[in-house]
Amino acid sequence: MKPVVKLYWTRVVMGIIAGVITAIIATFFDPTTLTTLINSITIALLVYFVSYYILKPMFKDKIEKQSKILSTGIGIYFFAWLAFFVLFYTIIQAVTMA
Q1: What are phi and psi of 32, to 5 degrees?
Q2: Which residues neighbour 56 within 8 Å (Cβ) at sequence distance 6 or greater?
Q3: Distance between CA 18 and CA 52 in Å, rounded?
Q4: Cα-atom radius of gyration of the chain, to the nearest Å?
Q5: What is the Cα–Cα distance from 67 to 60, expressed in whole angstroms?
Q6: Which end of the chain is more exposed for a tag (fewer CB within 10 A), N or C?
Q7: Is the dihedral of CA 61, 69, 76, 10 positive or negative?
Q8: What is the pTM of this model?
Q9: pLDDT tens for residues 53-66?
């Protein structure tokens, strides 16, 4: 598998993990809707940039353009984050309300 493909799928998995983490944090620690959304987006961005600094040394020699390490998978990361955030937030809300 090519390094760019590995980086892409790593970002997909990181988006899913970030979605689950932000759903849990948003459910149990934030009382208002706007604050929940802003804090969740902030956590998702934080996870993305931390993953960049973790993945950069691993892919530094394997990917020719260093800017591709930052930009590869950014769209799917946020799409996966949003989908799993909504999914798990809804599930957790349904379970806690029942």
Answers
A1: -110, 155
A2: 66, 69
A3: 14
A4: 15
A5: 10
A6: C
A7: positive
A8: 0.88
A9: 999 999 988 988 88
